[in-house]
Amino acid sequence: MNSPSTGSRIVIGTRRTQLGPLIKSGGAGSVYLLPDDPNSVAKIYHARVDPPSYADRIEAMLQLRPQLPDQIEGDKRYVQIAWPDATVRDDRGRFTGFTMPVLDVNATSELEQVLQERQARAAGLPVGLGRKVTLAANLASVLAALHTQHHYVVDLKPVNLRFDRATLYIALLDCDGFSIQGRGRRFHAPQYTPDYLAPEYQTRSLDETGEEAQDRFALAVVIFQLLNFGIHPYSGRPAHDGVPTDVASRIRGRCYAYGRSGNSSMLPNPVSAHAMMPVRLRDLFDRAFGDAPATRPSAGEWGNALSLYARPSRGLIVVCDRNREHQHYVGHSCASCAREELLTRAARNAKSRPKPQPPADWIAASRTGRQAYPPKPAQMPPSFGTPPAASPQASLPTHMPRLASFVPVLMLLMVLALPGAIAVIAANIGGADVNYSPGGNCSWFTPDGRYGPTQASPQPCRQCPCTRGEMEEFVQSRAQTDMHVLPAIRVSADEAVLDQRPADEDGIGG
């Protein structure tokens, strides 16, 4: 059978209507506007995916709906979850899809776009710590409501999440792909992403008993990226050659480099902000990425903790004194300032390095156009009766010697341009780049992931332009962070209510 399309007659519950214009098409189905309901859209499954196989799943979703109603503020309506509202059948009564709340795509953006600061600034999206903490708190709260009904996302990742740019409300999409708890039956999630899959399921299949633990792991990864310049918690600099290069394998090997006790296999990204986070948040991350899945913080626990920092009235996130565009946790150094200083210093040192001087014979060759190589030694005449050996250059075209005269010139230009290229690259590298690491692989990184010189040599390391003195200066700024920690805060039920309003105009909190 063919799936309904624009203009096709359909039945929504008991109401007869027709499909409006197509607005989106995906792997499982297409989404259409409804002419008689501007607040809803219809998702119609493609015929090739066997629509009747989804009927029981959608009926289970209608029976156990999470408590995430649309937020109505004045004439604005904010969707928090695109959950089914009703089934859709064709004019013969066959199940073809469901209706769901319409999401204002023009007013929302993918959470993925916020992770990279350069990309976020270009798109006019939040870059301040306060707003990112608010996004993380809202995400945790929405997920907690979903888990209350024992539904799980499983394939939780930033590209599958959207947020309203004005209110910072989070919206969960593609809910029919979640793991759904029906009455006496579970409908499993068919997909997952290796870079957000818990270590215990990197080597074996995910079963229904571990789906909440999987959501808790993926949630912690997304929160870590939001609060740490987009850096994945399993990226960094390998401490030895045995460390895998891909993120999924590092997750399987439990190569988490940002814990309070460090990691012997992985060193942190030098521009990471983890050392400038409050102890309470660092402890939550350590539990999330530790060896015991049962101790991972729940979505509700994350929501309670993050809501304290998301509310400007509590003053736990303040504006930086040195740069009004930055914010940091109260009592801690500004991670944005430290990151900018490190990147700027690396770029400046790369520019100030003395340019290597080419050999004198190369310079002479560039001026005369002649080859600056010593003449070949004369060959001995062949013995009588022995045919002469074939010359290895006998088959080369006659223009090759002339072309070879330009090789020294090209090599000279490449050598002179190299320092500038290094400077441009260093100046434009973002915080989420896994491989970028000024000072990486040098002895100034201790095995526990901290920063501190272990050699007396004042020479720069081979991997970056940082000198010993500059690294020591940066170490001191990092060391001061650990001396100012916030006391543990107990959250009452009333205090845990998330303030989802945008940050104040003075910039504090976002």
Q: What does the secondary structure layout of this molecule look like, with pairings?
A:
Elements (H helix, E strand, L loop, with lengths): L8 E4 L2 E4 L3 E4 L3 E5 L6 E6 L9 H9 L7 E3 L2 E3 L7 E5 L4 E7 L6 E3 L1 H4 L1 H6 L6 H20 L12 E4 L5 E3 L7 E2 L4 E2 L23 H17 L9 E2 L8 H6 L13 E2 L11 H10 L10 H12 L6 E3 L7 E3 L5 H18 L7 H9 L31 H5 L2 H22 L39 H12 L31
Helix pairs in contact: 4-5, 4-8, 9-12
Order of strands in the sheet with the most strands? 2-1-8-9-5-4-3
Q: Please, what is the CATH homologous superfamily of the largest domain?
A: Transferase(Phosphotransferase) domain 1
Helix content: 25-40%
Major pleated sheet: 7 strands, antiparallel
Q: Which parts are unreliable, with pLDDT below 50 for 5 consecutive residues or more?
A: 370-401, 423-510
Please tell me what the overall shape is. Answer: globular
In DSSP terms (H or I, runs of 4 or more residues), the helix count works out at 13
Taking all Cα atoms into account, the compactness measure Rg is: 30 Å
Name the CATH class of the largest domain: Mainly Alpha
Mean pLDDT: 78
Termini gap: 52 Å
Number of strands: 18
CATH architecture of the largest domain: Orthogonal Bundle
How large is the share of residues in beta strands? 5-15%
